[in-house]
Amino acid sequence: MAARSAEFKRKEPTMKKLRCHSCLKDLPAGSLKYVLEIKSFADFDGYLEEYEGNIEDGIDCLLDAMDEMDEKAIEQDVAREMIFILCKSCCDKFMNDPFQNERTVYASDDVKGTLH
Ligand SMILES: [Zn+2]
């Protein structure tokens, strides 16, 4: 395969080239590229599971467990943020069908109404 030999070429020592994070296409300087920011955060719907026993013991127990957890891990449980650079066609593909499952994408306003 012709593509194989290209892998053994020495990497250029010049500045890092941008590539589409999805299709790995080179995105030369000046070309159209899109920044995709993904944020996720835990949504609380106000529902607390009924705790069997003393609720204060339960909270102490939870706090103890959190003490043992890495702070970063807790943060990631609550909110996460990712940033990707995409070419136009990958960005379009993602925006039309983020999970590639051919389901309709709802406008964000529709979804927000269902949560709060
Ligand atoms: Zn792409």
Question: Could you please describe the fold and organization of this structure?
Answer:
This protein starts with a helix and ends with a helix. The protein has 116 residues and is an alpha+beta fold. It has a two-stranded antiparallel ribbon with strand order 1-2. It has a domain at 16-43 and 50-101. The protein contains five helices and two strands. It has helices spanning 2-6, 55-68, 71-78, 88-96, 108-115; strands at residues 34-41, 79-86. The longest helix is centred in the middle third of the chain and has 14 residues, at 55-68. Helices cover 38% and strands 14% of the residues. Bound molecules: zinc ion. Zinc ion binds at residues 20, 22-23, 25, 86-87, 89-90.
Termini separation comes to 55 Å
- Count of separate DSSP helical elements: 5
The class by helix and strand makeup works out as alpha+beta
* Proportion of beta-strand residues: 5-15%
Query: Residue-averaged pLDDT, rounded?
Result: 78
